[in-house]
Please model this.
Amino acid sequence: MLAKVAFGKNKSAPVIKTDHPFRSQSQVSQLTSSDDLAQSANLADALQTTLDSNKLLSIYAGFVQNRIPIEALQFISGDQIFNLFGNYQDNDYQHVVMLYADKSYLGQLIYSLKRPLTLPHKLRLEQYHRELTFPLRNAMDFSRLHRQAVRDHLTGLGNRALLDEILTHLHVKQQRDADRSHCVMMLDLDGFKAVNDEYGHQQGDDILCIFANLLQHAVRDSDQVFRFGGDEFVIVMEDTDLYQAQTVYRRIQLALEACSELQMYRLTTSAGTAKLNGFAPAEQIMQDADQRLYQAKKKGKNRLCDSIDSA
Model:
């Protein structure tokens, strides 16, 4: 039994804004109580198979698409937008449902339609929403906890746990397609220890956050930045050879030279790059990159060392 269905605007949840002139828009708040779950086995069982929010929403979208005349479906939660299927701008009608699980707001499902939903279709959707609500809440909670577990608390970058996940994934990809090239760059701040000792750990933490932000803006969109520990950072570059990695390093150098907040301490950065292969494990690749970084330090700092440089 549906615990609460309220038609019209709900002040506790955001209202969808769009420039598309829909002929009609209906908005529903649906609160599902944990002591009143739906009993339809097909969808409910399918939704219990994953804690991945993307997979769960895809399962739901495929199920609904085959049973209700819907042209497009989106789910919006906070700053995340999941375009599940279709193009909502091509349709004249919208049906917006705000999902709650035991009074906890989850997000909005936005159904785009060629024509308004019939009453039987609305009732059927209500049933589907009851089956979706708690698996979706569990998946969102799991996703949030996972993000917290794999993020560096100081900089917000991925931490070593996430780095290990990414490298393991790339190692498998490399074994399947040896022709693709992936690189790992390890880098640190030259002179950071002296600055940290002189100005204190709080100032040192601020410097690390500034450098982390600089790295995120200097690398390419496809690159991933991680904090490895202390003032050491790692950049994972997919579909990148060693020459392209040199270009990425040069972009970082130029960004650091242009950063007045870091140049007041006369900081530079040294780096070492290693290329992934399908035979060496991720730990070996990281050791190779660390060894290249050590070579860069020995050769005078503020430089990149890789196998090209060592040849």
In short: The radius of gyration is 25 Å. Residues 4-149 form a domain with the Beta-Lactamase fold (CATH 3.30.450). Residues 1-17, 34-40 have pLDDT under 50 and may be disordered.
